[in-house]
Amino acid sequence: MSKTFLAMVVEEREDGQFVRAVRERRVSDLPAGEVLIRVGWSSLNYKDALSASGNKGVTRTYPHTHGIDAAGIVEESQSGEFKPGDRVLVTSYDLGMNTSGGFSQYIRVPAAWVVPLPDGLELRASMILGTAGLTAAMSIAALSERLAPSRGDILVTGASGGVGSLAVAILAKLGYAVTAVSGKEEAREFLAGLGAKAVISRAEASDSSGRPLLKPRWAGVIDTVGGEILSTAVKSTGLQGIVTCCGNVASPDLHLTVFPFILRGVSLIGIDSQNFPMETRRALWQKLAGEWRPAQLDILGREVPLSGLDAEIALILQGGQQGRVIVNCGG
């Protein structure tokens, strides 16, 4: 008889509504893959909330178990690279989108998606980082290649969210002067505690004048929201500045002229963590386990059980998440 386990399952009802509940599943029902992992921890991301709400652009068919992050212990392996007992993590690729995901006590995935847990990083801590931490690290890697801390202030938008808060903490540890953007007045103390030297409101970070260029304020920008805040940031970035973009929660639209690029030499770099190359992915996880690990990592994660996910999904969709929500899957 196939082993059973618990997982959060999203189902589509006949009336078109989507409902979520923790249900019992069988290991034999998991998709094909070389590595079976007993999941100890996962984390909640905005994409998970979209999948949980029936967004067909993220997940095509239901019932479905979401969760784009997972960390745990290898239980079975058909790959020579992994063996039972190995501590591993999986983030992005198709996990939790159309492949049964990390809000579950077991996952089965291709070996090509699996990252050995770096030395010095605990399973729980790896999920405080998760896809958000990897995305922040990718953004910082792109920025730090060309901008030393001495070049000037770095703007981080959506700073109280997962990617933003981790970016603030890592940048501050590396010696950058960070200005954080947040729409939450109560987040100011939180962001200052992560190392932000200043916190400004969304209104202060937005310009709707239509001017093609604004006074230079930033040496670089890590943007997590898109829309008018991103276009304002690009127009406010100084000579040879770097702007990274990884999100569109505010808007996917970007209204710009070419002037920031041809008159100031600004570079706009897109960040795609879903299909990021494995060799570089592993190298960034090593950095996150070592010199880039935020000193405040433990305070960034708030823990919930699988049964507590429903309320957190509603909160993140409303823009109310602060820091990271990690999920104790009990696997």
Mind explaining what this structure looks like?
The protein is α/β, with parallel strands linked by helices and 331 residues long. It has 9 helices and 15 strands. The protein has helices at 46-52, 123-144, 162-173, 187-194, 227-235, 259-263, 278-289, 297-300, 309-317; strands at 4-12, 18-26, 35-43, 69-77, 87-91, 106-109, 115-116, 154-156, 178-181, 198-200, 218-223, 237-245, 267-270, 301-305, 324-328. Helix 6 (259-263) links the parallel strand 12 and strand 13 (267-270).
Protein topology:
Elements: E1 4-12, E2 18-26, E3 35-43, H1 46-52, E4 69-77, E5 87-91, E6 106-109, E7 115-116, H2 123-144, E8 154-156, H3 162-173, E9 178-181, H4 187-194, E10 198-200, E11 218-223, H5 227-235, E12 237-245, H6 259-263, E13 267-270, H7 278-289, H8 297-300, E14 301-305, H9 309-317, E15 324-328
Helix pairs in contact: 1-9, 2-3, 2-7
Features:
six-stranded parallel β-sheet, 331 residues, 26% strand, 27% helix, alpha/beta
Structural class: alpha/beta
Helical amount among residues, as a percent range?
Answer: 25-40%
Q: Residue-averaged pLDDT, rounded? A: 95
Low-confidence stretches: none
